[in-house]
Amino acid sequence: MKLDVIDRKLLEMLQKDTKKTTKELSDKLNLSVTAVYERVKKLEREGVIKNYIAILDKSKVSKSFVVFCHVKLTQHNIDLIKHFEKQILKLDEVLECFHVSGDYDYILKIFVEDMEAYREFMVTKLTTIKDIGSTHSTFMIGEVKNTTAFKLT
């Protein structure tokens, strides 16, 4: 789908605040409420807008200990990869998982309460997954930038 200038502006506005009414959006875009509504519906139908979510403050839900865990598998075959990925999907502590190139095969972004919770996660969950060869954990010291919004205009 080709995005025009108005689609891009609309998407940037929605990325900042999805609670804006169609009327508020239409006022800022100088379009009718109906035109904005139809554009949003089209962007949803086309899959440009995948979902609407609430972004939580991790410290207020006791998930402010952030770990980037690099994982290396013992072998690289399709069955092992599928098994590992299936197991990772079951782990609530893992919010993001990326299959990457380089020294490690995966990078996991893990959110837990504290170091003790991370230790418990490693011992009882992550390291019980078959065919993990090694892991390397890096802990977040501070957050410099954290956004979900793409610059489109």
Main attributes of the structure:
Alpha-Beta Plaits; four-stranded antiparallel β-sheet; single chain; alpha+beta; Arc Repressor Mutant, subunit A; 20% strand; 153 residues; 2 domains
CATH architecture of the largest domain: 2-Layer Sandwich
N- to C-terminal distance: 16 Å
Characterize the largest beta sheet: strand count, sense, and whether it forms a barrel: 4 strands, antiparallel
**Strand arrangement in the largest pleated sheet:** 2-3-1-4
Radius of gyration: 20 Å
Count of individual beta strands: 4
Amount of beta strand: 15-25%
Highest-level CATH class of the largest domain: Alpha Beta
Structure in words:
- The structure is a single chain.
- The chain has about 150 residues and is an alpha+beta fold.
- The chain folds into two domains: about 5-45, Orthogonal Bundle (Arc Repressor Mutant, subunit A); about 60-140, Alpha-Beta Plaits (2-Layer Sandwich).
- About 35% of the residues lie in helices and about 20% in strands.
- The protein contains five helices and four strands, in the order αααβαββαβ.
- The chain has a four-stranded antiparallel sheet.
- α2 packs across α3 (about 35-45).
- The radius of gyration is 20 Å and the shape is elongated.
- The two termini are about 15 Å apart.
